Every structure is written in C-alpha cells, then in structure tokens.
Amino acid sequence: MAIPDVLSTLPLRAIQAVLLHFNISDLLSCSRTCLRVCNVAKSLEYEPISLDVDISIYGTSLIFNCNNVCETWSFKESGNTVTVSKKDPPNTIIYGEGSNNVYYSLTSAIIYVTDVLKCTVSKVKIWIQGFKPFMLHNLMELRIEKCLDLQIYIALGETTPVIREQWVAEVIKNVCATGRLYIGVPTDGSFTCDPCHFKCHLLVMDKPTPWLTPEILWKMRCPQMIIKNCPFTLENFLAFVDRWKVTDRRDNRKFEFLDMHFGDLLKKKITDGILRGKSWDKQLRGQYYLTDEEVIDCQNGKDIIHIRDERLMATTLIHKNRKNLFFGVWHNPFPVIPDGILQAPRR
C-alpha cells in the first residue's frame, strides 16, 4: 500500500503529525495523490517558506527555502511529457504529467504549491541567454499571479534587441511583480506593452528602451523608477516634473522618485541653471534621500513645492558624475539614515 493510501486511513491528528515531519517535497507529493491528505495539508500552519523560480538555458527550477534548508524541483520536457524531479538526490522523480510546454506545468505546480503551503513566490529569474525563438515563444505560457521580484535579463554587454515576438510584454503581463521589476533585455521601437501591466513598486530598466515615451512612463504609475540608457531628452525629464506639480493628491501619495541615466549626453548638454527651484533649506528637509538601492546626497539639489499641496516638496538633482538626473518626492522630509549606510550603496 502506498504512503498516501496509508495516511488517508489514519485519524486526523495522526495525519497532521506525519505531514509536519515530512520535508516539503514529500509533503506535497503525498497531498497530490489523496484529497483527504491534501485538505489536511492545507489546514496546517507552516514555517515561513520562500519560493523562487529560476529559468535559463540550463533548466527550469522551483526552489523552496525553509529555515535555511533548500529543496529544488527540476522541470524537464520530453515529447509530450513534463517530468518533475528532485535535484537532490538527483533524478528522483516526483511526478510526471502530459504537457508539451514546461512553463504550463510550472504554472500548475506553482498554483498547487502556493495553495497548499499558503506562500507566495518571492523571486522569478528569467535568464534568456542562448534561448531559441521557440523557447521565447513558450515563455508566454508562464503564469504567476503574484511575485515580489521579477528579473528578465541577458548578458551584460548584449545590446541587440531580443524582440522577435511580444514575449517580454506577455511575461510582464502574466507574471505580476508587486515589489521589483528588473528588465535587463534590450528592446526596439516596435515593442509595445500596456502601461497598466507595470504594477511593481520599483521599476528598473537596464537596457535600451527606444519605445519608452514620457506619456507611457507616466501611465505606468510605478512609485519608484530607475531608467538606464534613457531615450528621453532633458526637456522630457523637466516636463515629467512639471506634470507632477499639478497632479491630484491620490497620485502624489504614490509617486516617490525617478532616476534617469543620460550618460555623456547629459554631461555635454546640461548647465547648472537648467534645474529650477530653491536651494536646500535645512529646516524643510534632510540632506539625504533614502531609496532601496542607495542613499542620495541632495545637498546641491533644487527644491520645488507642489502647486495643489504646499505640504509636499520634491527635489531635482544632477548626480553620479553629472550623468544622472534624479527627481525625488519627500513624503518623509527627514528620513532616518542608519549608521554606516553612507559609506556604500545599498544592494
């Protein structure tokens, strides 16, 4: 008699005791094969579990971390079957299912795991180096209702646009990043994605984005935005600031900062008088602006007051060797800077 069959005949408390002594893989394997065991598993309280997804040319994995103990499920496609196995010990098959797309099976597994363990996906890393066109197409089948951190990236020096289809837009739409969205793949001017699909708190674009316009950026409504290889002009940046000054209070409460890397273009064209506003007043705000990535010295920034809400102040600043323009709103005019944090960027 199989273990799930034996478990299903035990009293409720006995099933609970057995399941709590299982590792994550065994618990999920047993709960998949018996409805009663599954219902008991859903009713239990577990230690906090981190769930990560890793996708690359080397494989597709679902990684569990509980109390610093990691378990990894590997998803492999062969013909019309996807096999899910443990990484350690290797080649230990957990289950198989009929499917011709590994990401469809991965989606099903994530739905089941998050339902049983009552956890959310922490990080999704998609490294597309070496992916063939059909592999990029298959990525559009991946669905994750919510994750804290989504990273889509390619080799650091790669600048050739990877857009063959709208797979990047589909991934952004279907994998909902609520914390951080990092886009590290170059795109071309034909790329389109509905701004409403950008629901993250921090947006980082690390490759050329010629499709990005001030209007699209404004509609994204991400509170924090870091744009590198920026396609904007200085006039675009200043127009974004002017638009913020007349927004309603609802939008004001959400937006926090915009940091744009212009490179040598900014260094050559900008003059010290291009940023309008008042010099720093120590009585009105602190010297340092605290972000998740770093601490920014705003001593030399120019301060502006919102037209509709005089209690709200923002700062524009030229920084990072005169290659970046920063625009930050002081929702907390005097943030507490932890000791020792000014020596290096936060990561």
Radius of gyration: 24 Å
Total DSSP E strands:
16
Q: What portion of residues is helical? A: 25-40%
Shape, per Cα inertia axes: elongated
SS field, number of helical segments: 11
Which spans of ≥5 residues are poorly predicted at pLDDT below 50?
343-347
End-to-end distance: 52 Å
Secondary structural class? alpha/beta
Could you give the order of strands across the largest sheet? Answer: 5-4-3-2-1-6-7-8-9-10-11-16-15-14
Q: What is the averaged pLDDT score?
A: 86
**Assembly state of the chains shown:** single chain
Strand content: 25-35%
Summarize the structure in words.
- The chain is α/β, with parallel strands linked by helices and 347 residues long.
- Among the domains are: 1-45; 255-347, no CATH class.
- It is 28% helix and 29% strand.
- It is built from eleven helices and 16 strands.
- It has helices at residues 3-8, 12-21, 24-33, 35-43, 102-117, 133-138, 167-174, 214-220, 234-245, 249-254, 264-269; strands at residues 49-56, 59-66, 69-78, 81-86, 92-98, 121-127, 144-153, 175-184, 202-205, 224-227, 257-261, 288-290, 295-297, 302-305, 313-319, 324-329.
- The strands form two sheets. A 14-stranded mixed beta sheet has the order 5-4-3-2-1-6-7-8-9-10-11-16-15-14. Strands 12-13 form a two-stranded antiparallel ribbon.
- Strand 6, helix 6 and strand 7 form a beta-alpha-beta unit.
- This is F-box domain-containing protein.
- Residues 4-49 form the F-box domain.
- It comes from Caenorhabditis remanei.
